[in-house]
Amino acid sequence: MRVAQVREFGGPDVLITTEVPDPVPGPGEAVVAVSAVDTIFVETQIRSGTFGEHFPVQPPYVPGGGIAGTVRAVGEGVDEAWIGRRVITSLGFSGGYAEQALAAAAKLVPIPDGLDLHEAAALVHDGVTAMALLESTGLGAGHRVLILGASGGMGTLLVQLAKAVGAEVVGVARGELKTSLVRELGADAVVDATSPDWVARARTALGPSGADVVLDGVGGDLGLAAFPLTADGGRFSAHGAPTGGFAPVDAAEAERRGIKLLGIADVQLSDEEYVRLAAKALTEAASGRLHPVIGGEFPLERASEAHAAIEGRGLRGKVLLTT
Fold first, then answer.
1. CB 173: neighbour CB atoms within 10 A?
2. Most buried among 6, 105, 123, 140, using CB within 10 Å?
């Protein structure tokens, strides 16, 4: 079968298409014929070699942790009724950029009828994490929420989900193309992060007390600049690091102001939690209440272009690979 493989750490051009043997399922496993692969920013960071301390992956390896497809075969102990079913699943951080992938049967999540495989793929990571963030931050009706990176794959979902629970949403994105999308998705106010006074504009939109919840999917200096916008007694989730690092928030200052700090560890899920939240996200999408935004699709042999597009930050929403 064909795979896109990272032959060495480096730029997008280190991704090459090659042939490897078809996978064979072991006990508790299934082989999924892949239709679409969710590609996320952290995969570009792993490929570049900059996140080695967090992800001990060594080349050559096949990236890709989130897929949508059809179960082709199952191993010992797995119900054969899975064969032929459309599913999404999370693989961790490798094995997905392929025509077929080995998956743990315990993490297979059926795709509801009527939901497109590509839309389902766009929810494998971001839909689940977005659902987990709503639960961990207790976001609800009447709360004011600031969403950084609101035009990205997860940000676009968070805007919709926050509005659905009755929150007042202020979205932060870069440039007119992206801010217009956030506005179209229903945000009550949108702030352009390229404006020198974006923090002041966000403060005006949120009101003098600030945000009950800040969802930082960007990290770095932008996330750090957003921290003072958190209301006393609020919640600040620093779960994103496409800037190269999570927002370096002062924990002592957060404690003094009664702000609950949350991080990437708070959205690391058990298999059971993953399946529950993924099913919830798929149900919302199948019902038409949640609309994944897919900004670009690339065939498997153009995986390097997909990574370049993600790193270029020009696209809105998700980038998918297709087989």
1. 29
2. 123
